[in-house]
Amino acid sequence: MPADIRSFFGGKTSTPIREKETKKEEDSKKKRSKSRKIIDDSDDDEPAPPSKKSTPKKAPIKKPVKKDSPKGEETSTADYFATSSKPKPKPAKLTPTKSKTLESIESNSRSSARKKTTTSYNENNDDDFAFLDDDEDAGDDIFAADVKKNGKHKADGYVEVDSDDEPLPKPKKTTTKSKPTPKKKKEDVDMMDVGDDDFVVPDDSDDMMVLDKPAPKSGSKKRKSVDLDEDDDDDNLKPATKTSKSKSAKQPPAKKARAPKKNEPESSAVQAILDNIPTVRPPTPPPQDPNHKYDWRKAGAGGNAGAPPAAGSKEIPVGEENCLAGLTFVFTGLLETISREEGQELVKRYGGKVTTSPSSKTSFVVLGTDAGPSKLKKIANMKIKTINEDGLLALIRTMPANGGDGKAAEKNLEKKKADMDKVKREAEEMEKEEKGKIAEAEKAAKEARRIAAEKGIAPPAAAVRKPDLSSQLWTSKYAPTSMNQICGNKGAVEKIQKWLNGWAKAHKYGFTMRGAEGLGGYRAIIVHGPPGIGKTTAAHLAAKLAGYDVLESNASDTRSKKLVESGLNEVLNNNSLLGYFAGDGKKVDEHKKKIVLIMDEVDGMSAGDRGGVGALAKVCKKTDIPLILICNDRKLQKMKPFNDVALDIPFRRPTVEQVRSRIATICLREGLKLPINVIDALIEGSNKDIRQIINMISTAKLDQTAMDFDQGKSMTKAWEKHVVLKPWDICQKLLGGGMFAPASKATLNDKIELYFNDHEFSYLMIQENYLKTKPTLIGQMHGREANLKALQLADQAAESISDGDLVDRMIHGSQQQWSLMPTHAVFSAVRPASYVAGLVQGQVQFTSWLGNNSKMNKLLRYVKEIQSHMRLRSSGDRHEIRQQYLPVLWTQMIKRLEVEGKDCVDEVIDLMDSYFLTRDDFDYMMELGLGPQDEGRVHLETQTKSTFTRLYNARTHPLPFMKASNVVAPAKQTKEVPDLEEAMEEDDDEAIVEPKEEDDDEVDLKKDKYIKQPKVKKPAAAGGKKAASKKASKKKAKDDEEDDEESEEDVKPKKAAKPRGRPAGAKGTGKK
Amino acid sequence: MALLVDKHRPRSLDQLTYHKDLSERLRSLAQSGDFPHLLVYGPSGAGKKTRIVATLKELYGPGVEKIKIDSRVFQTTSNRKLEFNIVASVYHLEITPSDVGNYDRVVVQDLLKEVAQTQQVDQSAKQRFKVVVINEADHLTRDAQAALRRTMEKYSPNLRLILLANSTANIIAPIRSRTLLVRVAAPTEVEICDVLERSARKEGWVVAKELNARIAKESGRNLRRALLMYEAVHAQNEKVTDKTPIPPPDWEALIGQVAKEIIEEHSPARILQVRAKLYDLLTHCIPPTTILKTLTFKLIPQVDDTLKADVIKWSAFYEHRIRMGSKVIFHLEAFVAKFMRIVEEHLMEMDF
Questions:
Q1: Which of A728, A767, A879, B106 fits a 20 to 30 Å CA distance from A791?
Q2: Where is the AAA+ ATPase domain (chain B) (predicted)?
Q3: CB-based contact (8 Å) between A813 and chain B?
């Protein structure tokens, strides 16, 4: 793909830039260092006149652009197009640029085709691609012979094993075989193509033709042999690994079924490569009959979310740029050496597409172990090619750049070209617009100068300053100026616009006519969605297009209740000045009289904006101008007031496609070369935050003119918004995220970092959930062995957690060794997870430790209370009370009540009194029961219970002591003293303190179980006193000393009138 | 109508039925007029407190039996208010500083000083000093113990301390050297049987010798426990014979259930189930060490002889960790996992 962009750029960008770029590419090239390739390329370049680029693989892409068009090779491209059954673009445009691009494609394919061979030369001698070497070295016959021999050997062996499975795949074979006829023709054409294409390098094409041509002509004999060989390869590849013999045995028939199929879709040399990808491995047939078996296995093995078993054992090849372009991949099952994410990234890096479920458009299914049965079924039904990991790697290794001239690649190219055209158009438009703006500004400036000159004054300074677009932030420079420039959320944007347009009318009807979409029923709308997707932009744009003057208020303004009320009220009844006046030389825009108020970042109204949200919601109900509220998180509690008063307009993240062209346009405008897959990576990496992407490329532009996939990746990584994970996510990541897989690139620090995302909960969550995993380390063990291994792992994990607790004690205990936090992280979270990491079964639970801990504290308080009551009678400490007394007391009290009913109530109360137990203690005891005495198992009859309560309340009970919580510590009173100077006067102190004490008394009496309160008397007295004290305090606030004295006199008699004896008495007993 | 334990509690040194020589020594100490600081230690249920109360009665006369609970509020340095209960008579105070956890130092400092700085109010009192009984002295923090040591010397004219502890291990040497160590050993099983018989006679119950012996054995020579079990047996059975089963306390029954679950199945899922039960035990204020110990002794008889030593080893290992760490469930669970692992490994070896 990048080639196309470049070719487009070729016309526009100046050479110096390109030169720089090539240098860069050289650098990147060196990293990969394939001398052979370079040589080949230079060969290819020989005919090219400009000598400056004898360099890397990208060079040829560009060069042809220059050299080819004058040379008049259009004929070949035209031919090419004519043959390749893609007539669409040709009539559309046969402009010079077009042909250039086509040419470039061709040259790409050419060079990459050669590359394929070279790679096989260089690297794959002992690889599974050995046959390719054979083919090169010893010639076709030998190769064929070899293959046949090999194939036969294996095939014979298989057939015997296979007999069971054959009936299943066979029907497929027949169905597929019927197809080849129409295909053959095409392939012939394709062959010619190949010839055309490869005329420069005849050796290569020869090889390919040998591989390809015989297939259709000699009735798929050769083809079959190739397939068998592939089979063979598969076996060679994974003899050690888990694939059971039966599985591989199923391959031959499937191969046959697939073989004809392969001929069908593709054209050209690419087809050859695709065919020869030794990887076409078909464990596909098994889907139907072992279906149950698969389900079972899946349940056992837990799917494919785990880490690859043999990770890191294979070297991941470096392929041609965009070599997978146009191909669609589906990953299923657990790959051998690379994780699924890695695999998908790999595909994306080389321009391929990854989808989640196989469809007719899928070019390859990358199959691992334990593939999902439903996917297998689909694969079988649609007869999609399946490859394994090695196949994928081989594809990458062998495919020509830009997917060669394969059909899929071509299609892809077309699409991309269309995209590019669009991008280009947009860029042009943008430029035009920009120019227009500048021109306008200049005109305005001129006008101003003219007016100034007429008036005989010096031109105003403002007019002199020209709008300098380059100084603008890209985000504002490329802010959308029309509705169709907004990426995504078209519906929402239209809704805003519709609402704004209909607002005046709706206002006239008093917002009673809701209309079809309910747009007429709201004075305000609330736009919400994640940051960076254009909410504010859309709101502004909509307002602008609807002819409103925008008034904006955001989090930088204080928006408290008062300010919202006062500030907005002024605004609400006003018209915009812009409707009447304009700056010098500008036309007055009559439509600008209307105002729209945009309240941005409503959820940013925080503590400083007390009551702001409520006030704003109120404004929403009666506003006379349209109000657009914008927030990120609509679900917040504090956004509740807007529930009914504003129309919800949710903004969603745009899709990659929606953003892509916009970004591409901007890149084009700025002369930054970003291949599409890099743009995609940026978009995905930033989670579709358009603003961030623009900022990123703006930064990138500062020091480079192109960016490759890896740079893009690393950039998104660096710009990644740091998200603090929730405890659940931490736990999920550690236990089930494949972090501990051998292939995982996560460092110890990464794992420790996870712990620090929430250091208070993460380890508790691990402790809660570590037993709920199915550890990968168990591997393929079964039955008791697996169980033993699981136990061992659990034990190791548990021991590590136990270690971690010792560290925790050192951190939170008396030593306060906070520097041990990372140690704690390792012991309490990382290490346990390293043992049991695998598949988390069921949901990740929140830690139960906290709940249990608080429950323990509560019950401990109960026990203490009971013990303190029993203390006079019994000598035991609280453990003794809990462990020995309580079970006996339980049987003597609760059990008796349960069994004997209300007859024994008196005796039970006697027993309680003898131990000074209160009614509350009785309940506590119920709660403290355990196991056989569990609270849930006790069924006291309601009658018994009520009798018990009644009798208990009716009787008097001995008191062992008084609670003395009303012995107020002196410090508290000093705190209450107000810091006003006048208030320091003694009288005042009394006036203030007095009600306080009263309060204390009240609370105490209520709390104390031993004191019965005369309910009638109390409130009146308290009320009277409170009134007095209130009066006193009020006066104190107003008057000076003399008045205070008076007021105190007022208070005093009342105090005397109060039943003073009670609190005093209570205090006295308490104190003694 | 209190329970047996408390109803029949001996009130004077004469009524104590075992450790006669110890009772005699205490009596002579009390009568000597030069009563030292005491550190009384022994397992729970051996009769420490009973003996001390009896000794106090010997010292001051029946006045010490008029006790009440007093509640005091202390303020810590961080302005936290602590409520603290004191059992007090005119002549003595009884405190449990471990009630307030880490703030026990505040209590010890403030309270003891306050008590020590005033003389005996009652002029007719037999002794000029007051006695402060400190329960659970072995749970005092280091700081509190350090605060004690100087107080003991400085205020000795006005104050005598009686420290009660289960063992002297946690008590710092300076304190041990300042006190007279009195060991109250657990009663023998015969002595327990004797006590049970006396109680039965007082209650008019039929004495079942076999049952008493069983209770004595079951109680682990804890007299309080034995008496409570005796009571429980009588409360739950109309007719008590030698064969009457002794109902285990609730928590022990639950631990028994846990042990059964552990033995039945060894798997991570089972550990999860056990965890829930362990949490139950812990939340209901059963000390983790008790859980671990009881569990271990319930597991031991059910495993192969060759494993027993291992099980004990790991049990001790994790008991230590429980003391060292803060979140006890982690260690209990680790023990369960370890136990399952070694048992399973053993079984697998046998199988293959």
A1: A728
A2: 34-185
A3: yes
User: Does residue B237 belong to the interface with chain A, where contact is any CB pair within 8 Å?
Assistant: no
CATH topology of domain B4-183: Rossmann fold (3.40.50)
- State the DSSP code for A338: S
A425/B contact by beta carbon, under 8 A: no
> Of B216, B222, B192, B297, whose CA–CA distance to B252 is shortest?
B297
User: Does the model's ipTM exceed the 0.95 cut?
Assistant: no
Q: What is the CATH number of domain A724-846?
A: 1.20.272.10
Chain A residues in contact with B106 by the CB 8 A cut-off are none
In angstroms, the Cα distances linking A386 to A956, A1071, B125, B268 are 87, 88, 101, 38
Binary contact (A914, B250; C-beta < 8 A): no
pLDDT tens, position by position, A886-914: 998 998 888 888 888 888 888 899 899 98
C-alpha gyration radius of chain B: 24
Give mean pLDDT, residues A32-42: 44
Per CATH, the homologous superfamily of domain A489-653 is: P-loop containing nucleotide triphosphate hydrolases (3.40.50.300)
Task: Note whether B290 contacts A928, CB cutoff 8 Å.
Answer: no
Q: Are B342 and B311 in contact (CB under 8 A)?
A: yes
**Chain A CB within 8 Å of residue B87 CB:** yes
Q: Where are the domains of chain B?
A: 4-183, 189-236, 250-351
B46 contacts on A by Cβ (under 8 Å): none
pLDDT of residue A457: 60
- Distinct helix (H) and strand (E) counts, chain B: 14, 7
- Interface check B318 vs A, CB under 8 A: yes
Residue A1001 has pLDDT above 50, yes or no: no
* pLDDT 10s digits, B300-310: 999 999 999 99
Residues of A numbered 835-894 whose beta carbons fall under 8 angstroms of chain B's beta carbons: which are they?
A: 848-849, 852, 855-856, 859-860, 863-864, 868, 871-880, 882-892
| CA separation, residue A329 to residues A302, A729, A866, B24 (Å) | 23, 29, 70, 94
DSSP state of A595: E
pLDDT digits (tens, 9 = 90+) for A636-686: 777 888 888 888 888 888 888 888 888 888 888 888 888 777 888 888 878
Contact B283 A892 (CB under 8 A): no
Domain positions in chain A are: 268-283+306-405, 419-456+662-717, 489-653, 724-846, 853-953
The total of other beta-carbon atoms located within 10 Å of residue B242's CB is 11
- Which CATH number, 3.30.1330.10, 3.40.50.10190, 3.30.479.30, 3.40.50.410, labels domain A268-283+306-405? 3.40.50.10190
Q: What is the pTM of this model?
A: 0.59
Statement: residue A786 has pLDDT above 80:
yes
